[in-house]
Specification:
mainly alpha; 3 helical TM bundles of succinate and fumarate reductases; about 0% strand
Length: about 140
């Protein structure tokens, strides 16, 4: 029953060049975003169905580890969006597949350009919060 899944996971980890790395990262970041959305929907629904659990989850959200997780989530979202746009453009214009290396390079550059201020702002706000309220 799990054999196809195990085979897919094993084959996914076999290195096949930079395009394969982007393919794998795109899948992993997409999975990370889906896990976040599921967790977020569950957590917010607990405000109605189990307020004490909701309060406990909010307390977890205010921890330094969760702040790091938010920065990782932002990185996943940015990379997934930029790489997804690259894929969509290449799919809409098949003649551009010949320039995939250039498109990949631009995808990475745009991701880094968008990610740098995002990480700086998020880290600054988290550090400021923990300095003001004490590390919990």
């Amino acid at each position: 029953m799990l054999t196809p899944l195990i085979h897919t996971a094993r084959e996914s980890l076999r290195y096949r060049g930079s395009g394969h790395v982007l393919w794998l990262l795109h899948r992993i970041t997409g999975l990370g975003v889906v896990v976040f959305l599921g967790t977020h929907i569950f957590g917010m629904s607990m405000a109605t169905f189990n307020p004490s659990l909701h309060e406990a989850m909010l307390a977890v959200y205010k921890t330094p580890l969760f702040s790091v997780g938010e920065i990782v989530l932002a990185a996943c979202l940015i990379f997934h969006a930029v790489n997804g746009t690259r894929i969509a453009i290449l799919e809409l214009r098949p003649s551009l597949w010949q320039k995939q290396e250039v498109a990949t390079r631009w995808s990475i550059i745009i991701t880094l350009i968008l990610l740098a201020p995002t990480v700086i702002i998020m880290a600054y706000k988290s550090i400021s919060y923990y300095l003001a309220h004490g590390l919990k």
